[in-house]
Every structure is written in C-alpha cells, then in structure tokens.
Amino acid sequence: MIDRLWFLMPELIVLGGAVLCAILGVSRKVGVRNLLPVFAGWTLIIAGVVAWLFVYVPSTELAAVATEVPLPWLGRWVVIMSAVVGLMLVFVQAGLVDRVYEAAVAAGRVAFDPLRTTRGEYWVFFLLSVGGLMLTSGASDLVWLFLALELTSLPTYVMVAIGRVDRRSQEAGMKYFFLGALASAVFLYGFAMLYGATGTMSLVDIRTVLAEQVAETGSMNPLATIGLMVAVLGIAFKLAAAPLHLYAADVYEGAAAPVTAFLGFVPKAAGVIALMLLLSVTGWQEDGQLPQVLVILLWVMAVLTMTLGNIGALLQTRIKRMLAYSSIAHSGYLLIGILAGPGAGYTAVLIYLVAYGLSNTATFSVLAGLRRSGQEVEFLDDLAGLRERHPIMAWGMAISAGSLLGFPPLLGFWAKLLLFMAGIASGQLVLVIIAGVNSAISAWYYLKIMAIPLVGTPKSDAASIERVDVPGARFALVLISGALLVMPVALSDMIADAEAALREPDKMQTVDEDSGHAGGSAIKQEQPSLQS
Amino acid sequence: MTMVATAMAGGSLAQYLIISGVLMSIGLAGFLTRRNLIVMFLCTELMFQGVVIAMVAFSRWHWEVSGQVFVIFILTVAAAEAALALALVVLLYRRRDTLDAEAWTELRE
User: Fold this and answer.
1) Quick check: B50 contacting A, CB < 8 Å?
2) How many domains does chain B have?
3) Where are the domains of chain A?
4) Does the structure's ipTM exceed the value 0.95?
5) Mutating which of A68, A128, A159, A184 best tests the B interface, going by the most B Cβ atoms within 10 A?
C-alpha cells in the first residue's frame, strides 16, 4: 500500500509546499512573506522534475498500478505541464496579489496583522488548485475524480474573491462559487447514475461492466449513457463550455488579471483531463466512436461553445471580456479533440492545452503588468501605441495573441493544425469546417489585439499607463513568447511524448525496457502518425 | 436478484430514486428562481443531498459499499463548500447590507 504513495509524490510535494506557504504567510517579517512566490515556484519545479525523472519511469510497481487506471502514463504529461505553466503563473502573480495591503504596511499606514493578510492564503490556494489538476490525471475511480475536481475548483473561488480589493472581484467570486457548486451537483448526479448502472466506482471496472452489457444487449446501458451525458454537462462548467459558459466573461472581468490568467488554464485543463478519463469508460467501442447520443451532445457543445465564444469576443471593447470569450472559444476547439478520441485526438488535445495555457498566460501577463493610477487597464483602445513606451509588452502581446489565433510559425498554429487534422481523421469534417470558419471570425479580434498595441495611435492619456514595479509578469511574458517561437522546433518530440503519455496499460509490456521517450516512438508506429 | 430485492425491504429502488430526483429538481428550480444568497446555497445543498440518496440507494441495490464511501466524501466536500459559502456571504453582506443576488450587477454586458 505504502509504495503506491510513490506515484503521488509530485502531488505530495505540492501539498507540502502549500503547508509551508500557509505557515510562512503569517510571518511578521516582510522578507519572509516576499519569499512565498519563490517557495511556490520551487515547489512546482521540484514536483515537475520528480514526475519527469523518477515517478513515471517504467517499473514493476507502476506496471502493477497501471492496470487500475484508464490512462496510467497521462500523469507524467499533466504534472510536467502543470509545473511549467504553473511556474509561469507564479511569475505573473508574484507581488501583485495583495499589493495594496502590503504597500500600506510598508508605508507604515497600518500595522501588520496576520488575520488581515491574504498573501499566505493566496499561495496556499494556488498550490492546492494546481495539485488538484495534477491529481485529476491519475484518477482511477469516480471518487478520486470528484475530489480532484473539487480540489481544483474550491480554491479558485477564494482566489477570485481575495485577488484584489474591489467590489467587482467579490461579485465575481460569488457568481463563480454559486455556479460552481451547481455544476458539481450536476456532474455528481451523473456519477451516481453511472454507479447505478454498473455497481462499481472504478473507471476501469465500469468500462469492463459496460462492455459486458454491450455484448449482452447490443447497446449501451441507457442509465449509464444518461449519466455520462449529465456528467459531461456538469464538467462543461470547468471548461467554460456551452451551456455553462455564461459565467466566464463576468468572472474573468471581475477577477484581478493575474487570477484570470490562472482561471483560464488550471480549471479548464482539469475539466479536459476529467472528460478524457470519464469518456474512457465507454471503451470507445470497436470503431473508435462514442455512443451516438454522446457524439451528438459533444458535437453540439463544441459548435455552440466556439461560435458563442468567438461572436461574444467580437462584440467586446473591454480587453479582459474579449479574452474571456476567446478562452470559451478555445474550449470549443478542445472538444473537437475530445470527440476525435484516443490516439490522434487526445494527442492533439494534450499539445493544444500546453499551447493554449502558455499563450493565454502571456496575454493576461500583459494586463497584469500594466497599471493606470493603480488600476488595471480595461479597454483594448487604451493599449493603442503601447509599443512606443513599452515595446516588450506590445511585442509579447502580439506573439501570444498570434499564437491563440494560430499564426503560422507559432506553437498555437501547430497545435490547432494537429487538432483539426485529428478531427478530420476521425470523420468530423463538418465540425472541423465550422471550427475553421470560427478561426476566421476570431482572426478579426485577435488581429486587433495584435495590431492595436503595435501600430495604433496612442490615446492622449496613454502616458498614464505604467509598468508595475515587480518584474515577474514581464519576465513570464518574455519567456513564454520565446517558448512559443522555439517550441515548434521540438514539435515531433512533443507529439512522441504526448503519445507516450496516452499509452494504454496493456501496451506497456512491450515498452517496459525502453525509456519513456523511446516507448513513445515504439507506440507511434501503431497509430496514425501526425507528423506530416 | 431476488436476494437483492429482499435486501431492499422498506421501499423499492424506484422510490428512492424518485425522491432523489425530486430533491434534485427542487434544488435546481429554487436555485434558478430564488434571489436570496443563502437560500440559493441551500438549494445547491438540496441537490447534493439528492445525489447522496441516489448513491446510497444504488449502493444498497448493488450490495456494494463504494457508493456509501462516496457519500462520506460528498458530505465532507459539501461541508467545505458550506464554510466557503458562508464566508463569501458574510463578505458580501458587509459590503452591501443585503443578501439579494440582484444587488450585485456591476459585471454584465
């Protein structure tokens, strides 16, 4: 039993980091409090390195556990992805979250009061939420999946509410919390039906029982099908996918920009991973397709999500609402990969998550890094001519928005290409055409986001926009922009790694002797290759 | 199956599932129509309890314990959510002196 904890080592490290932050966050020494982001960052680095080098290497213990989990190697990809994007989020958030209170303490206007500081809590909740995302990937049963999703979500409600001292952030926190609680109840009801149909909580066992029922009766158990549909609808909240996408614009606008960067990635990635695991219980039948009703549900959700997201973004003048709607649209694209299924579809989803997570973090880091008399910049037009005074910000915005749009040399382009190719290969041509049209619509507002900071005429009050005094957001922006330009070079390695992460347990024996990487290329020959 | 059926003495599976569905529906309808923050939160709690009843009924029907284990976890998470909800409600009440959800309309199109 105890050796199984070894596979939770990255998550345990993150938990330890969270406890450390909780203790140090109430320190009276400002130097110690300022160290919290450093601790959080190192926690994520260590967790990522441990997952990369030690935990998910082939071993007899892992082979034994692997048969109990739908996608036993997925954790490696998800933990490393969470660590990398999480580290960027640490840079974006460092020093910005409770700057008003800390500035007041530093100026001597108020005495430091451990009860009033929120820095410790913020980093604790940050680490716990990222840990929840990591845990989601290892889910072996419905209980685990539920707890991991809640661990991802519950801290985000608090982070939204305490992210800045503003009525709007509290309103956003309230809306997010209530809809989140509703969505949890909905997907739990789906879980209950799934359990009722099969009599087991284990995802692998559910898959076996459902396959037996299909063999007996010729069709999928209706209770299980309805349960899966209800669960998918509930999890749509985490992705901000239609029909539960309406909160996104309000919550993203109300939360502080560093928190919004976080909301755009962590809960969404957890939702996508949960969908992948949950749909694995259907076994994807022999022809690699889901049951018909689920295909229709996901198809409609994908079309609605990307269309409503893109049209919503077109109509906005506020930059954060625009990016919120764009993140809804990206959930729609991700659903194409989910529909395309294991193999090419899931591989594309994993790569798209990385590309989207990095680009999205970068766009919000621009907003987090700029201030006008202590407030965030609200309108896109305010950024006009940003290049003249803050060239790094303007170019970083252009590169990351270009990546979100899918501009050719950038990582976002290749990720979107893989996603669309996987969609076509699985026979979803109409869906991919709709997504293509949507990409064209999105070009309108993404090009505005790219061009206005670069070539727009500055407004008369543009000089009042200042960079914030902590360099973290700019640092993250430069790193991510560089990564978006450079990572396509390593695209074939990324595809190999993603395919290795999606290996099924029964295929593991053949690759046990190899390292994870070589294992990926061994499997690659069995599946339709994406590299062309 | 007969053994399972006798184990369900005191009500059939369908009866429990109907109660669970009714709780779920009341919760959802209340959530969508009521405006008081605390009542809205109670409605989500009702929905959780609907899930709990379904879980326990299915667990009993399958004669398998993991459904009841799940219930313990659901109750725990619901308690954590209640703590969070009440903290948020207190925070909001201090700002506006009202529990009406419609008083909070700064974020909209």
Assistant:
1) yes
2) 1
3) 286-502
4) no
5) A184
